Amino acid sequence: MAKYFDIDDILTEEEFVPVLFHKPANGVTIDPSAETHCVEQGAKVEVPFWLAHELHLRQAVSINLPACFNQKTRLEVQADAAYVDLRSRCQYFYEFGCKLEPLVTDRTLGILLSTAFKIRYKEALTKVYTAAHITASKYLPFLTKEETNLYEAAHLSMTAFKKWRTGGPRLQRASILGRKRKDSN
Amino acid sequence: MAGQTDPHISLFSPQEVEFMAEDELVKIVPNMNMDPLNFISGDFGRFVPQIPTEVPLWLAVALKRRGKCTFRPPEWMTVDNLTQILEAERESQSTFQALPFSYVEIARLLFDHARDDIPDMYMVRSLVEDIRDVRLHKLETNLGSFQGTSAVKISNVSAMEVNLVRPFVRRALEAFYKHDKPEADVDRDTRSSRQQREANNEPRRPLRQR
User: Where found, per UniProt (chain A) (predicted)?
Assistant: First the structure.
């Protein structure tokens, strides 16, 4: 319930998954190209995850793996996980995979996620502290939202430390007192 | 991981860590007479000229700014000691040398205010900076060696270094934990062996050995 209002969680659940309907559904316009407003039994449709989850609980559909977890991605991850552009596949790659894991029959999803994350962590994210901005920014466009969070956290604390190190007035007026300053602490 | 949209999650800013470091006791040599001072944190004794006394760092800095004392540098801040520590840091790749918990902050405050009280000031300063760089580098390379633990112990890390890596390591460990949990249910046999790093300095992290 803590994640009900969380923007990232909402956006994660917005991702499409292909589902296979077990029961016909009447009066719904899921497939915009269909003529009749109903879905046949055995039809394959793409629905958002939140919908697929609900339908799965009522045993009306079975969920297949979406395209971002397909064989092509797996092969790429095996080859060189650090450079795989996960952001264009799915911005919430890890989070989405974790949600799908209990619903899908494929057992290797969790392993794929954790190996991908571990390798990417080791290669890209640990370089944040030492590397010059150029080397780190090679990986930046490829990171998913969650990894970008990690990166930003590290980057912020490093800049704060450097700023402190170069000195500054020991006592500073609080920024909420209205004085105009460029960098408020 | 998805629940943390706030990047400003570092729990202490460097200024706050410095503030907490100012409680450390240092030796000063006052040059005036003053009665004992009574504070909430304790009483600091009679100030007699030329008799060294121990006071907290914040009080020492305040007295120094009013020109009422001179600092006596702490024992660990001599050129020999620092050179030795630097050598030892450079040698070993995974252990940190024992240094006072807030050495970075104490060193910086002393350099800012007590420049003339420390013999060989420039030498000491460059040594402290070198030590800091080496330790930071070591810390970062060791960060990359997590294999999926959910608790990490590293000994002799100082306050400022811990504060630097704190948000990053916290989130990374959470992510590792999240990804390993479903894996642990599915596939116990093929789980890769997990490395562990020993000895912790941070009261906040649970020390669960996996």
Answer: Nucleus
Q: Which two tokens stand for residue B84?
A: 């030795």
CA B145 to chain centroid, in Å, comes to 22
Of A3, A113, A185, the CB nearest to B3: A3
Query: B141: nearest CA in chain A?
Result: A126
* ipTM confidence score: 0.72
Q: Where are the alpha helices (DSSP H) in A70-185?
A: 71-80, 86-89, 93-100, 109-123, 133-139, 145-165
Contacts 24+ apart (CB under 8 A), A100-107: A100/A17, A100/A49, A100/A63, A100/A65, A100/A66, A100/A69, A101/B182, A102/B182, A103/A52, A103/A53, A103/A56, A103/A63, A104/A63, A104/A64, A104/A65, A106/A65, A107/B186, A107/B187
Beta carbons within 8 Å of B72's beta carbon, 6+ residues apart: B26, B27, B28, B29, B52, B117
Q: How many CB pairs lie under 8 A apart between chains A and B? A: 121
Short-list B52, B55, B75, B60, CA closest to B109: B60
| Chain B residues with CB within 8 Å of chain A CB | 1-5, 7-10, 13-15, 18, 108, 112, 136-137, 140-141, 143-144, 146-148, 160, 163-168, 171-172, 175-176, 178-180, 182-183, 186-187
Looking at residue B9, its pLDDT comes to 55
Q: Which domains, ranges and CATH numbers included, belong to chain A?
A: 1-64 (3.40.5.50), 67-162 (1.20.58.2050)
Read off the pTM: 0.71
How far is the C-alpha of B106 from the C-alpha of B28, rounded, in Å?
Answer: 14
Closest CA to A116 of A137, A136, A135, A89: A89
Nearest-Cα distance to chain B for A171, in Å, is 10
Chain B residues in contact with A129 by the CB 8 A cut-off are 136, 140, 143, 164-165
Mean pLDDT per segment of 10 residues, for chain B of length 210 residues? Answer: 46 84 89 88 85 89 88 86 89 84 87 80 87 86 70 82 83 78 49 35 44
